[in-house]
Design a protein that fits this description.
- It holds the Pfam family GFO_IDH_MocA_C3.
- This is Gfo/Idh/MocA family oxidoreductase.
- GO terms for molecular function: nucleotide binding.
- This protein is α/β, with parallel strands linked by helices and about 325 residues long.
- It folds into two domains: about 140 residues, NAD(P)-binding Rossmann-like Domain (Rossmann fold), CATH 3.40.50; about 170 residues, Dihydrodipicolinate Reductase, domain 2.
- The chain has ten helices and 14 strands.
- The strands form two sheets. An eight-stranded mixed beta sheet has the order 8-9-10-7-11-12-13-14.
- Helix 1 crosses helix 9, helix 5 runs antiparallel to helix 10 and helix 8 packs across helix 10.
Length: about 325
């Protein structure tokens, strides 16, 4: 799998570290608007080619897969261009700003017989699979609680009157799509689509959510997902059943440590050997790519589509509007 990257943020650094840790993937090129912005990462991971033109990246015959890690609002445009040029795509979360955008990407990928993946770490983590495998031991589920909160390094800039991309409705920012989406994936991958979803948010004057609480109603239980970029918290996920509970330390995004509590018993569940969460999703994508398993790829797409439908419904419930909603 020969990869070209779009973006130079910390997530790209983590992704390139994951690439370096695998045997089946290599990054052959990077795109950045300015060469000097990408040079540090290119030197760190010995990537020889830096493009300052997207067309040049897309026309590079060595590049098979494009990893899109640009600002949220640009995911759709960059993924679409890559697909139009015959490239497979790994797109960072949130997949797109609207369901309509994702519908277009999925149709295009299938038309061109290309693979399209959402880079959401949680569902590919070995410890998340252990949660799935042990869920039945809890009996009837009654309550799910998740909190993933991380004070943004850009929050003070927002308070000072600036509008960083991550807090900008024009760039499809906000706490729900940037951080609470991990909680939503955690719940929906375990339990499917809820009967109803609502979102109550703390909003900045520009209309963006800096923190908030999702409530997902299922036939027999309720799930609550809190996410914040304006405060820190003790992050966790709890699944409570009539026969016990599962406690995920440090939040749904990493599933670092998982504990199964049944009666007086407490058992630690852990099969993760690296702290780089992106490694596991990349290994999963590599395997699907190598086997040319389009059926599995498109099953993942169907799942991502169902999650995005809930994200958009929740966002609209809280009155959060993106520029992309008008297109």
């Amino acid at each position: 799998m020969k990869i070209g990257t779009i973006g130079t943020g910390f997530i790209v650094d983590a992704f390139l570290a994951a690439v370096d840790s695998t045997d089946e993937a290599v990054c052959t090129a990077m795109y950045s608007r300015k060469q000097e912005t990408a040079k540090t990462l290119a030197d760190k991971y010995e990537i020889s080619t830096i493009y300052t033109s997207l067309d040049e990246l897309f026309e590079d015959n060595e590049v098979e897969v494009v990893y899109v890690a640009s600002p949220n609002s640009l995911h759709y445009y960059h993924a679409k261009q890559a697909l139009e040029h015959g490239k497979h795509v790994i797109c960072e979360k949130p997949f797109t700003s609207t369901v309509k955008e994702l519908d277009t990407l999925i149709a295009l990928a299938k038309q061109k017989n290309l693979m399209l993946f959402e880079a959401i770490t949680t569902i590919h983590l070995p410890n998340f699979q252990l949660v799935k495998e042990n869920l039945h031991k809890l009996g009837q589920i009654k309550l799910v609680q998740c909190n993933y909160s991380q004070l943004s390094s850009r929050y003070n800039a927002l308070l000072a009157g600036e509008t960083p991309n991550v807090f900008n409705p024009e760039f499809s920012g906000g706490s729900l799509v940037d951080i609470n989406i991990y909680n939503l994936h955690f719940v929906m991958n375990l339990f499917g689509t809820p009967d109803q979803i609502s979102y109550t948010a703390n909003k900045h004057a520009n209309g963006i959510d800096t923190s908030g609480v999702l409530v997902l109603n299922y036939p027999d239980f309720i799930a609550e997902c809190a996410g914040a970029k304006d405060t820190n918290s003790m992050n966790f996920a709890l699944i409570q059943g009539e026969k016990g509970f599962i406690h995920v330390e440090n939040g749904a995004n990493g599933c670092r440590r998982v504990y199964l509590h049944t009666g007086a018993s407490k058992v630690e569940l852990n099969s993760q050997t690296t702290t780089n969460n992106l490694y596991y999703e990349l290994v999963a994508f590599q395997d699907i790519f190598k086997r040319k398993d389009y059926e599995q790829c498109y099953q993942l797409l169907d799942y991502s589509h169902s999650v995005l439908e809930q994200v958009v419904a929740a966002r609209k419930d809280a009155g959060i509007k993106f520029a992309a909603d008008l297109s």
